[in-house]
Amino acid sequence: MLEAKLDQAALLKRLLDAIKELVTDANFECNEEGINLQAMDNSHVALVSVKLDAIGFRKYRCDRPMPLGVNLGSLTKVLKCAKDDDMVTIKAGDDADVLNLTYEAKNSDRIAEYDMKLMDIDSDTLGIPDTDYDARVSMPASEFARIVKDLASLGESVRIEVSKEGVRFASDGEGANGSVLLKQTDAARRKYARIAREEGEGVSKAEDDEEEQEAEGDEEDAEEGGSKKKKKKVKSEDVEMNGDAEEDEDGEEEFKPKSDDEGEDEQEDDEDSSNKKKRKKAPSSKTAKPTKKSKKSSDEGDSDGGVSIEMNQHVTLTFSLKYLVNFAKSSSLSDDVQLMMSNDVPLLVSYKFGQGFIRYYLAPKIGDE
């Protein structure tokens, strides 16, 4: 028996929107590790591979490995009946020919159930060999989607060239030509290196946040300690001043008492001087806060956008823009995309998200294809 529960139906919706135009029928292979899908398009030019890890589900149970043959068009129609924030539960018996989907609304008592017929699909799982790619490009998914969409209006093919200068996307059309060059930035290299390190070491964002909070707490403690020291110094100075006054009283000079008017005038002067000090201190405290915000915003700006390139040798390949435009629909699943290339080897376009990944393999064009 299979039972898988997701917190939001939006994930499945976006996933199917990304692959439904490439693949019509496919098997979802379910096992104790999660749900996998692997299928090729009708022309056998592109291959899509999807993995949803069991740990990414709110609840997951799969007693034995089982395939779920599904028509993606029909599944898309059923998922449209769910809201993006609905919890979705997928159920199927061991030998069942029906897939059950249940949608539960979070803010109401609404529960909707749909049954969908399963299909017997004969498909062989292709072994994807591990490849040491000569070039690896990491970039924002939105930028990749924009580039392929713009160039698709000019021509049918795009030439992707990775060199020391950067990564260039060029398209030659009948009426116009166009190219886009993206250069590597230090901020992007640090960003994607940090992401790779976190994935390799299993460092969570929560731990990073805790470290930042501890560092901020140490800074605040240091500031408080400094302010306490300043207060102690001020008190010691006051004591010394009082001591001088006592010495003056004990000295030869006579002490002349002041009148009430003079005392009131002196108090008013003291109040005016204290108010002036407060007014002077107030702007400094206000100006201190924006400096922290500006520093934080600058740190955030360094981590956004940009391209990171890892290259062993110069790579130039040509691909069909029609497929790349379809691949770019996965930008709704992930903020970043990786392009992995080697000469005479299919292009790998990889999107990683919280529950797993989606990967596309596209054969390059040879000659005048």
TrEMBL record:
Transmembrane domains' residue ranges:
none
Cellular-component GO terms for this entry: PCNA complex
Proliferating cell nuclear antigen PCNA N-terminal domain span: 1-124
Q: Which HAMAP family match?
A: DNApol_clamp_arch
Q: What does this protein do?
A: This protein is an auxiliary protein of DNA polymerase delta and is involved in the control of eukaryotic DNA replication by increasing the polymerase's processibility during elongation of the leading strand. Involved in DNA repair.
- What range(s) does the Proliferating cell nuclear antigen PCNA C-terminal domain occupy? 127-191, 295-365
Question: Compositionally biased, Acidic residues: which spans?
Answer: 207-224, 239-253, 261-272
Q: What is its main location?
A: nucleus
Mind listing the UniProt keywords for this protein, alphabetically? DNA replication, DNA-binding, Nucleus
GO biological process terms on file: error-free translesion synthesis; lagging strand elongation; leading strand elongation; mismatch repair; regulation of DNA replication
* Record protein name field: DNA sliding clamp PCNA
Keyword Transferase set for record: no
The annotated regions of Basic residues compositional bias extend over 276-295
Q: Identify its protein family.
A: Belongs to the PCNA family.
DNA-binding as a keyword of this entry, yes or no, is yes
Q: Which GO terms describe its molecular function?
A: DNA binding; DNA polymerase processivity factor activity
Where does the protein end up? Nucleus
Region feature (Disordered):
198-307
